[in-house]
Amino acid sequence: MIWQVDLLILVLVVICALATITIKDLLGASVIFGVYSFMMCLLWAEMGAVDVAFTEATVGAGVSTILFIAAILRTTRRSKD
Fold it and tell me: What is this structure's pTM?
C-alpha cells in the first residue's frame, strides 16, 4: 500500500468528521456525512477489505445520506438561525 494515499484519505476523513459535527446547517451536515462515508469506503478498499468497502458505500454513503436528506426536506424550520 502507498502510505501517502492512506494518510491523505485519513486526513480527509478527520476533516469531514470535524466539519460534520461543527456545521449548523443540517442539509450541509448530511452532505458532508455522505462524503465522510465515501472517504471511509475508499479507506476500506485501500486496506483490502472490499466487502466492508462495498457495504459502507451502499449503506453509509448511499442509503443513509438519502434518508437524512429526505427527513430534513420533510421538516419545517421554526426559527431563522
Answer: 0.84
Distance (Å) of CA 72 to CA 18, 28, 66, 76, 79: 20, 11, 10, 8, 15
In a domain, 79, yes or no: no
Per-residue pLDDT of the chain (81 residues; tens, 9 = 90+): 588 988 999 999 999 999 999 999 999 999 999 999 999 999 999 989 999 999 999 998 889 999 999 999 998 877 665
Q: Is there a domain that residue 46 lies in?
A: yes
Could you tell me which of 63, 59, 75 has the C-alpha nearest to residue 27? Answer: 75
